[in-house]
Specification:
Length: 218
Amino acid sequence: ALKVSQHLLGLLSPLLMAHVLVFQEAQNTETQLGQSEVAWGVNCVFALLALGLFQMVWNSQVQFYSHRVNLRIQSALRGTVLWHCVTNRQEQQKGTPQVYNVLSFDVGPNIDIIFVVLDVWIFPINLTVTLLAIFTQVKWAVVPGFITVLLFEFVNGLLLYMDGRYRDHVYMQKDVRLGLCAESFTHIRTLQMLDWTKPFEKQILDARATELGRQSVR
């Protein structure tokens, strides 16, 4: 509810700004305005200023509440992990993760997943409200604009997916190169004794060339 209200307050700013700009344009062109129009423009200006101040306070309170909820969830998860590790010492001795590793590296990402799920849940509400707000201003012109946004988002997601695949290939090839380097450093005396330095150097250079090639493709 707080996130939705924050989104609704954010939509009010451009709506009020549209009325303020119309009022300002009429004032700059020295267009004669009626008393009601002048009063409406002044009210929009004061409403925009009041909304900005209220948003500053409201956003800070929402952020504070989110941090407090995050802290409580984090404390609950850490307490659950500690309780499980204390009451199941036999399982811990069999090879389960250490308490420190779980608390340091697993609790934070799990909390992030919870907030991502909440954002996904309220996304249809925010999208519907945004489309309705735009529809009140541009009517059915919102449809081609929305389709264009979806098309670009699809292309962006596809490019991000391809970038992730190429990045994975680059890291895999980098591991191969670093593995060869580590092996050569470990057995440097053997390589010198058997005169295998040139062939091994060629393997490292070939691995580096492959890595740079995949990096250039990315």
